[in-house]
Amino acid sequence: MQGVTVEEPEGEISDLDPPGCSTQARGSVTLAVNRSRIRPPLSVLLATGLYCAEFIAAAVLCSLYRKTDDVIWLGFTLAFMLLPALLIQLALTFIHRDLGRDRPLVLFLHLLLLGPVIRCFEALVIFIKAGKIEDEPYVTISRKNSLKKGQAGLMEWEIGRSERNLATHRDAFKRTAVIQAFLGSAPQLTLQLYASIQEKYLLPARLAVMIITLISITYGALVCSTLAIQIRYDNYKVHMRPVAYLCMIVWRGLEIATRITALVLFSTALTHWVILVGMVNLLFFFFLPWVEFWARKGSLTQDVEKNFSKLGTTVVLSMFTLLYACINVFCWSAVQLDFSHGELIERKQRWGRLAAYYAVRFVENFLLIALWYLFKSDFYEYVCAPLLAVQLLILYGLALLFMLLFYQFCHPCRRLFKYNVHDCLHCVCCRAGWRGASRSRGTLPHSYSTAATMVLMPEEPLELLGPRDPARRPEERETDIVEDTTEAA
């Protein structure tokens, strides 16, 4: 059939047959005759709703600042409202390649900062029309390896045009959600919390902006974590269970809330020093990927955009690095950049870097809170400052606890881990005893944390979201751990 392509084999772990598909076995190959049911674009709706809600709430707050002649608060609020909105329009236009297409209405709406709205409307129209017969029954065949109840096999799915277009929209809105969260919502929440403490009262409009921005940042961090899992295990269809989402929301929410609160409290005591703290964090994470790239003597990837020159590619990578640095200032980005890779993301999950980040961040938050306690203003006379400091440290500790629980029990790909959190803690706490026991027993048995948790779901094909590497052997996708904490897992 013309226009039909066959994708490279990928892997899936499942205990269930795909719903909505009739299968026919041909030796070790099982063909899915019907396409799976297309899911509604809920992530597109959520990202658009957060974008509109934050923009409207910030606009209302700006009008109040204008009436009270608060020029400083007005200027910063406008900047943190318009900057991410402009970047989102550029990102959507770039991903959908609208500059090379005759779509004047869409480009005009982008100029009015309504790009996410029209994109959401397009996604809804595609979903509504998905049940109708298309000109071609399918445009792509996705071939994947599956492991069902201990038996390996190969399966094929027919991917229709509607499913492919919805996958493009979901992919675009995942990027815009991260841009909105860490280039707009995080600075906006920091600013409004600082203004509330300085002015010693809380406006209802300001409270609304703070609530919306906190939700937006948490959702952006959630998207970062899920994207990292999908990129690391791109050969598998990953289905996140509700308990995993709940654990990630608590982990990310507590981490971001305590981090921003520590920065704001420190800024109320030592206003000018917080600029130094923020710039050191931002510059360190901005130059870290470039230093690693130059140390490896790699070459820039050409998959960003084939029409870009080397200078244009460098500018795009610099903007991408700026976003990466802003994420790490407020929370763990869950990914590491690799400019020599086509996806710009390093596939290895570095447990040593994860542990180092949270250890340094905990110490930094402790120092910020301690310095605030020593140099706090008279405003905190009616606040139990020691109790507030202890509560912030405990909440950050709870965030770390939920992170460990997620990787130990709720991570959808923990079956592929050769070792998990339980084994790492056992290795650190009982290294001497473990070495002696390993000599007598030989090899260490697998951890109990390797129970299967991945379920086959009719999600959009991940290979449609960007270029993928060819399928690798299962043993090459296992996460290894070594005694040196700087080694990749």
Order of helices and strands: EEEEHHHHEEHHHHHHHHH
Largest sheet: 6 strands, mixed
SS class: alpha/beta
Q: Specify the number of helices.
A: 13
Short overview:
This protein has 13 helices and six strands.
Structural commentary:
The structure is a single chain. With 489 residues, this protein is α/β, with parallel strands linked by helices. The protein contains 13 helices and 6 strands. Strands 1, 2, 3, 4, 5 and 6 form a 6-stranded mixed beta sheet that branches. Strand 5 and strand 6 form a beta hairpin. Helix 5 crosses helix 9. The two termini are 44 Å apart.
SSE topology:
Elements: E1 5-6, E2 10-14, E3 23-26, E4 29-32, H1 42-67, H2 71-96, H3 104-111, H4 115-128, E5 140-148, E6 151-159, H5 161-199, H6 204-232, H7 242-269, H8 271-296, H9 310-330, H10 351-375, H11 385-410, H12 421-429, H13 431-441
Parallel strand pairs: 1-5, 2-5, 4-6
Antiparallel strand pairs: 3-4, 5-6
Helix pairs in contact: 1-2, 1-4, 1-5, 1-6, 2-5, 4-5, 5-6, 5-7, 5-9, 6-7, 7-8, 7-10, 7-11, 8-9, 10-11
